[in-house]
Amino acid sequence: MKFHDLQIIEPILKALKSQGYDQPTPIQEQSIPILLAKNDLLGCAQTGTGKTAAFAIPILQHLVNSHNPDTERRNIKSLVITPTRELAIQIADSFTTYGQFTEIKNTVIYGGVKQQKQVKRLKAGIDILVATPGRLLDLMNQGFVSLNDVEYFVLDEADQMLDMGFIHDIKKVIARLPRKRQSLFFSATMPSAIINLSESILGNPKRVTITPEKATAEKVEQHLYYVNKGNKIKLLVHLLATDVITSSIVFSRTKHGANKIVKLLLNADISAEAIHGNKSQPARQRALANFKDGTTRILVATDIAARGIDVDDISHVINYDLPNIPETYVHRIGRTGRANASGIALSFCAVDERPFLRDIQRLINQEIEVVANHPYPDDTQEQLPPSKKGSNANRSKSNSSRNPRRKNCSSRNARNSRSRNRN
User: Cα dihedral angle (388, 391, 397, 398), rounded to 10 degrees?
Assistant: First the structure.
């Protein structure tokens, strides 16, 4: 199927063609017809599947078809809420790209920066507003944002909204929306709280589920290194000493760990920057821009901050720390296998991370290939217990006692890890 088979209007098709896009991804192929028919949608898909275009294209088309150029002032007709600043910026950029041959205007608002420029753009009049919850509520309370005319509402990365403690903010925003609207929910996983919220505001939604685990695992070449925790940085420097890894996201479980990794890489003359919630917004944008243009070869990130990273041609993803949530592993390695591309994922596994590895391999239904021939092998690598269906691995109390294992999208059960860390 091609984009022109989806009854998309010519200005948007022209924009897609200018970007080299001809064939929709599965979530785009399934979602666009539903949304063009103005149905509500509950979509389960991870970042990197093309879901931004899946909702941006229909919204733009609806707004183009209803746009009145004689209207003196533009009012906000579409609201998109997303958890992180980086992701908000990239969604706004996508609206700009796909709407470049239309007269539809958008802007983005987020915290961490002064509000004057954002307020100025709002006063000029816009059709589409992309926002993070905190700044949105702040400007609503100041009277700079009115949601009275919103016809299309999108809640993106809904599970991360829950994890980051935004659920109450979201409910406040929803209470201010017109009852008559088209609503879209997108989430990589479906915690019960998100399902309950969606059921309370969606009107008989259509459902689209893109199951990423097996597809991503098959698309990405994966390798596993058993290594003592103290030797992880030595192994990382050793691997980065070659030219094979041209650009890489290195995942750290903590913000402090990310800073420490960057410091040690810089000491080894390897260009690297960190991106996480404790960094200022300008610093985060600068690090991301440097990574995109190749100035910085290595970007060290935490999981929530990485939700806003949309960069092509990432040669490798490196799991410096294995995640204690198996689905997070799939989301991470998908960064190097965006859309139809392939990539390479390297994972370091210390002794206390063996239970995490077992759960990951059970989720993707395959054993990750072990690289034994490296300078810093862990002699206890044969002690990994066999995977047992239904097993609830003993997890590191520092990270998992509050985070029971989350099921994937096809399940109604989920972990409910409520983090107040607003990355």
Answer: 70
- Look at the block and give the residue holding tokens 């599970």: 159
Q: Can you give the three-state secondary structure of the chain, one letter per residue?
A: CCHHHHCCCHHHHHHHHHCCCCCCCHHHHHHHHHHHCCCCEEEECCCCCCHHHHHHHHHHHHHHHHCCCCCCCCCCCEEEECCCHHHHHHHHHHHHHHCCCCCCCEEEECCCCCCHHHHHHHHHCCCEEEECHHHHHHHHHCCCCCCCCCCEEEECCHHHHHHCCCHHHHHHHHHCCCCCCEEEEEECCCCHHHHHHHHHHCCCCEEEECCCHHHHHHHEEEEEEECCHHHHHHHHHHHHCCCCCCCEEEECCCHHHHHHHHHHHHHCCCCEEEECCCCCHHHHHHHHHHHHCCCCCEEEECHHHHCCCCCCCCCEEEECCCCCCHHHHHHHHHHHCCCCCCEEEEEEECHHHHHHHHHHHHHHCCCCEECCCCCCCCCCHHHCCCCCCCCCCCCCHHHHCCCCCCCCCCCCCCCCCCCCCCC
Contact by Cβ (8 Å): 6, 33: yes
* 122-151 residue pLDDT tens: 999 999 999 999 999 999 999 999 999 999
**Angle, CA 89 vertex, CA 346 and CA 151 arms, to 5°:** 125
Residue 259 CA to residue 252 CA, distance in Å, equals: 9
HSE, CB side, 13 Å, CA atoms: give it for residue 47.
29
Residues 228 and 256: beta-carbon distance below 8 Å: no
Q: What is the pTM of this model?
A: 0.67
Q: Name residues whose C-beta falls within 8 Å of residue 261's C-beta, 6 or more positions apart in sequence.
A: 233, 236, 250, 252, 272, 274, 300, 320
Give tens-digit pLDDT for 401-420: 334 334 444 443 333 333 33
- Cα–Cα distance measured from residue 37 to residue 11, given in angstroms and rounded to the nearest whole number: 19
Give the N- to C-terminal CA distance of the chain in Å, as an integer.
38
Residue-level pLDDT at 342? 67
What's phi and psi for 320, nearest 5 deg? Answer: -60, -40
Question: What tokens appear for 68 in the block?
Answer: 């009145």
- At 7-26, the pLDDT tens digits run 999 999 999 999 889 899 88
Report all structural domains of the chain as residue ranges with CATH numbers, in order of start.
3-209 (3.40.50.300), 213-400 (3.40.50.300)
